[in-house]
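Marked as duplicate of an earlier ticket. Keeping the data here for the record.
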Amino acid sequence: MSVRLDELDRKILRELQRDASQSLDDIASLVGSSKTPVWNRIRKMREAGVIGAQTVILDAEALGFEACFFVLIRTSAHEADWQAKFLKALKSRPEVLEAHRLAGDIDYILKVRVRNARAYDEFYQALISEVQIYNVTALLSMEEIKSTTMLPL
């Protein structure tokens, strides 16, 4: 579902993406409006589902999560009960930062953040004990070149 946004809405969203902790006064000043119209637009965008939860972005490496793996999964099972079990297993694992179902040769890709290779192996062993997987390939990210949560508005 697409929501109609005007240029002021987009400016507000760009500012919120850049730093959601800014005051309404600061955002209003930066987008060339006043506080009340900015607040009303933010409220409407929240109600429409354009703006979701506000959170804080943590530095994974500073917290000791030095290894980022991209895990490619192929499955020979595509039944609803297998998928439900697989999704439950993924959602219960805090190491899984992202999970996507794909078109093509690979069925799923996961972004997994762990402290080290040993922690990845523990994650892997736990996952395959919960659900049968045909093939798993893990790729270690050597360097994060770009990471953003900002949409190109």
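See parent ticket for discussion. The mean pLDDT is 96.
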